[in-house]
Amino acid sequence: MQAVVYRGVNDLRVESVPVPRISASELLVRVAVCGVCPTDIKKIHHGTVPPPRIFGHETAGTIVKLGARVRGFRIGDRVALHHHIPCLKCHACRHRAFAQCPQYKRTGITAGFEPAGGGYAEYVRVMDFCLPGVVKIPSKNSFLEGAMLEPVNTVLKGVNRLTVLPGDFVLVAGQGPIGLLFTQLLALRGLKVIATDLLDTRLKLARRFGAARALRADLPDLPDQIARLTRSRGLDAAVIAVPADAAMQQALSLVRGAGQVLLFAHTKRGAVAPLDLSLICTDEKDLIGSYSADVTLQPTVTRLVFSRQLDVRPLITHRFPLAETAAAVALAAKPQPDSLKVVVEQAV
């Protein structure tokens, strides 16, 4: 089969590799769509993991083979995949810190080499411990919608970390695909979302996704505008959906006492930012993080996406064939005014 193999920093090659072999408790899925995720982009651009690997984890496709011990699925089922599944038994899981679970940190979907998601290939092997994360796609919904379940799940997990009430003001900094998902999910919960970005096209879309106000992030009077909107109370919370230290520091100054700032995009190790710790101690502001997904949220996520109460389709702007995965990654890494979610798509 054809696959896009990571061979080193910024080195993605289309190669012929064996179709994965499955055990009696595993699935083989023909990939239809795989989204391009910033976490994979960082690994490709910065070489944070050793090659060779086949990346891609926002995957949907069709079951073409299943092991003799697999129950609940059939050949031909259209499915969305989930590459990280916690054990639900360990110390981390008992604290609902699923992304810290040792099993969760294992990647359970592969197209070959060290497991890394495998979605940039024609076929992927789904290991047994990842079967609880496999979701059947209804006939009315597309593979594209199925591939969006994983990123929606990560955003919903982040939203659930906020202790906000209907009518509260929440800033969402960055209106890329993830920021827009935050904007819509928060708006669906009755929050007043103030969306910021540097691109006017994204601010226009943020209003369509439910933002109460959409403001350019580089406005010199942005703090004054937010003060007027909140009647000088300050923001109740802020979501930083762009890896910008300045956005985090500004958000900490704009949230009220005992407000929250959620970091979602600061995933690169080793970054250090100056911080006035009295904001955390004396002002009781919470600086919190959220990373990856929570499989226990899958029923809610599938309902939101497949009912189209959360309509992810407008987010998908660019589709590339498997052979052009490197170009897809390049566009997602440096988005253009007209680009949002970038996916790799295969004929099925």
Structure overview:
Helices cover 26% and strands 25% of the residues. The protein is of the alpha/beta class. It folds into 2 domains: 2-153 and 293-345, Quinone Oxidoreductase, Chain A, domain 1, CATH 3.90.180.10; 162-289, 3-Layer(aba) Sandwich (Rossmann fold). The strands form 3 sheets. Strands 3, 4, 5, 6, 7, 8, 15 and 16 form an 8-stranded mixed beta sheet that branches. Helix 4 packs across helix 5 and helix 4 crosses helix 10 (298-306). 47% of the residues are buried.
Defining traits:
single chain; 348 residues; alpha/beta; Quinone Oxidoreductase, Chain A, domain 1; 8-stranded mixed β-sheet; 16 strands; 26% helix
In short:
The chain has 348 residues and is α/β, with parallel strands linked by helices. It contains 11 helices and 16 strands.
The CATH C-level class name of the largest domain: Alpha Beta
| CATH-defined architecture of the largest domain | Alpha-Beta Complex
Which fold name fills CATH's third level, the topology of the largest domain? Answer: Quinone Oxidoreductase, Chain A, domain 1
Sequence stretches where pLDDT stays below 50 over 5 or more residues: none
